[in-house]
Design brief:
The structure is a single chain. By secondary structure, this protein is mainly beta. Helices cover 12% and strands 34% of the residues. The protein is built from 4 helices and 21 strands. The chain starts with a helix and ends with a helix. The site of 3,6-anhydro-alpha-L-galactopyranose has 12 residues, from strand 7 and strand 11.
Length: 416
């Protein structure tokens, strides 16, 4: 058989092999759609779990930028004034409004054992709900108290804190934690109370009733109903909240959902609660046909943004970093019962322990991001933040850890 006759089939065979090899290999150009070929679990996930295979094209991925806000005084940060746990920001009467926990006490917090009628146990103890307005979201003018501590023996007489706003049929409703004893005595125990007003400037009328009660004995939310966070969705009020459970020292934080047909309730807790297994303070917003959640620290899925097509069953939709703590976003369609949530681009959040523990207090700060269908900001979609070495060295080993390592080295050398 002539040499040529041998070469051709061989070349053909080689071409076939190489073609099959390259066609089976993953392409250099990252396909926008899931390629029809055997894929690893990770690659399957990259196409199944995220709105796009690249983070920069993933509408639920963003970086967060932070700006100090002007206009609020903290008494030289001596710990006697705190502002924390901001509500969602709303825009009314030509300006932005935000509500927050405001504590002004003679001393910084001293712990439950040292708490008195004037000495706070925690940063949100002996607090009230105050509010501020702004025309640009960077400079804020404090307007004063919105919801004061009610007189004893009313619910919340010890402290009212961690409030959030709902607008329903042109009236305003404020949901907040009501403490009737100093936080930390048994735990951070409280139910949720509600006040209402015809204007964001008040006056606010307290219902002096519990709208989101603690759960039955031995259930996950038996002690604390925190961070009440109402949205209007599916023609109802969807109020998300956090609870702390599984006992000290490392409390588990998870989030639940309660729904109602009107602001006074009754609120029905979702039988699948908890609906989010991670995160701390609640931050959620309507996105497309569903609800997205910022799941910050705590839990296996911390530092993620999650999405639920039905507002109940959340899946991880992005992994992010430097998330805003206790974020209160500006959500133009928070109360419009939208079927196509546009997303968010900014809000207020807080930094707790802004200086040192002996002067323990929190400050409000502005965050910006690109979690919006109506914004394409590539500066918010970079893959990671570069931290200077000293940021890592600040997370140094403790003496106990150094001692453990020294012993391990000693043992190793003795064996040698
Ligand atoms: C915050 C919130 C609630 C808790 C406390 C003040 O982070 O989760 O408000 O009660 O901490």
């Amino acid at each position: 058989m002539k040499k040529q006759q041998l070469i051709l089939p061989l070349v053909g065979l080689l071409l076939l092999v190489s073609h099959t090899a390259t066609s089976q290999s993953f392409p250099f150009k990252l396909p926008k759609e899931k390629p029809n070929q055997p894929l690893s679990a990770a690659m399957n996930r990259n196409y199944e779990n995220y709105t796009a295979p690249r983070p920069e094209d993933n509408e639920l991925y963003t970086q967060f930028k932070y700006t100090e806000i002007k206009g609020l005084d903290y008494s030289n940060h001596d710990g006697t004034i705190t502002r924390r746990d901001p509500s969602k920001v709303i825009f009314e009467n030509g300006k932005y409004y935000v509500w927050y926990t405001y504590r002004e006490t003679p001393t910084p917090p001293k712990g439950a054992k040292s708490a008195t009628e004037t000495i706070p146990s925690a940063d949100w103890d002996l607090a009230e709900i105050w509010y501020a307005t702004s025309t640009d979201g960077f400079t804020w003018k404090e307007q004063g108290v919105a919801i004061p501590r009610p007189p004893k023996p009313n619910l919340g007489h010890r402290s009212v804190a961690t409030a959030d706003i709902l607008k329903w049929k042109d009236k305003y409703y404020m949901y907040y934690q009501g403490f009737s004893e100093a936080s930390g005595l048994r735990g951070d125990d409280c139910p949720v109370l509600m006040s209402y007003a015809n204007s964001p400037d008040g006056p606010w009328t307290a219902t002096n009733t519990i709208v989101i009660p603690n759960g039955p004995k031995d259930t996950w939310d038996q002690y604390s109903i925190h961070d009440p966070y109402p949205l209007v969705y599916n023609d109802k009020i969807y109020l998300y909240y956090k609870s702390d459970f599984d006992g000290k020292p490392n409390l588990v934080r998870m989030q639940g959902l309660a729904t109602a047909d009107n602001p006074y309730g009754p609120f029905t807790k979702n039988p699948l609660n908890p609906v989010l297994t991670s995160g701390h303070e609640t931050t959620l917003y309507p996105f497309k046909e569903g609800i997205a959640a910022l799941t910050i620290r705590d839990g296996n899925e911390h530092n993620t943004i999650q999405f639920a097509k039905d507002g109940v069953n959340f899946e991880i939709a992005a992994l992010v970093e430097l998330m805003p703590t206790a974020a209160g976003p500006f959500i133009p369609d928070a109360f419009t019962n939208t079927k196509d949530g546009r997303g968010i681009t900014w809000g207020l959040s807080h930094f707790t322990n802004a200086t040192t523990w002996d002067k323990n207090h929190a400050i409000l700060v502005r965050f910006d991001c690109d979690l919006s269908q109506d914004l394409e900001d590539p500066q918010m979609k970079k893959h990671h933040v570069y931290h200077r070495p000293e940021i890592y060295f600040k997370q140094g080993l403790s003496d106990t850890q150094r001692e453990r390592i020294r012993k391990e080295n000693e043992t190793l050398q003795q064996k040698h």
